[in-house]
Design brief:
Blueprint (H helix, E strand, L loop, with lengths): L5 H7 L7 E9 L2 E3 L3 H11 L10 E2 L5 E2 L5 E3 L5 E7 L3 H4 L6 E2 L6 E10 L6 E6 L6 H14 L5 E12 L2 E11 L3 H10 L13 E2 L5 H4 L1
């Protein structure tokens, strides 16, 4: 049963038809590297090869707890593997159920899934957004340009610098909060994302109720 969401009820008046959704898969195992974006994409694409030709698909970062022993994150039963993808790809993604992957810290088994529709909120947050410029001034300029091209108005609050290892180089970026976003534009932002490397977990926005997230990330 879907919880009542006043923002979503407001969107219904516009006869909005969702184009993207989040699929949440159970994940069983022990650990995953904290820097897992590229490796996780490669492992999932091994089972879903169409991902390589679908750049709009995003794979959310896995949010485990730091192990305290190494650079891995601990997997517990609350940790999920989440894909943001077009609604017409949901049935294709179900092929992941019961598959095994190894992003670099041992095998993980992908379990049952459930769908979580993308919901509109006025405040959105992404853990890692990366663009061509990795200095803060250039980063913000590029983000403003992308938002202008999408005809989206939003307040920007950059957070901590972020880094990710990909083959042959390291990419940099920042966590980013967008606030005072129009509800229809909020859906567009979550569907399209910002910046590069959506498949590696970058530029994927989720609703947030507080602008404090950037400070505590």
């Amino acid at each position: 049963m879907r919880m009542y969401n006043p923002e979503w009820e407001a969107i219904k008046r516009f006869n909005y038809t969702p184009r993207y959704t989040d699929l949440q898969f159970d994940l069983a195992g022990f650990e995953i590297p904290a820097d897992h974006g590229h490796a996780l994409f490669e492992e999932i694409a091994r089972h879903l090869p169409w991902l390589r030709d679908t750049p709009s698909v995003g794979i959310h970062p896995v949010h485990g707890a730091p192990s305290g022993r190494n650079d891995n994150l601990v997997i517990n039963r609350r940790v999920k593997l989440v894909l943001r993808l077009p609604v017409d790809r949901v049935s294709d993604a179900q092929a992941l159920v019961d598959k095994e992957i190894d992003p670099g810290a041992g095998q993980l088994r992908i379990g049952a899934l459930k769908e979580k529709p993308v919901m509109p909120y006025a405040t959105l947050y992404s853990h890692f957004v990366t663009v061509a410029n990795d200095d803060e001034a250039g980063f913000l300029n590029d983000i403003r340009t992308q938002l202008q091209e999408m005809e989206i108005v939003a307040g920007l609050i950059p957070g901590k610098p972020q880094k990710m290892n990909i083959p042959k180089r390291v990419i940099g970026g920042y966590s980013l909060m967008l606030h005072d976003v129009d509800l229809m534009q909020s859906l567009a932002l979550q569907e399209r994302g910002l910046g590069l490397y959506r498949g590696y977990g970058c530029g994927i926005f989720i609703p947030h109720k507080s602008i404090k997230a950037v400070a505590i990330d």
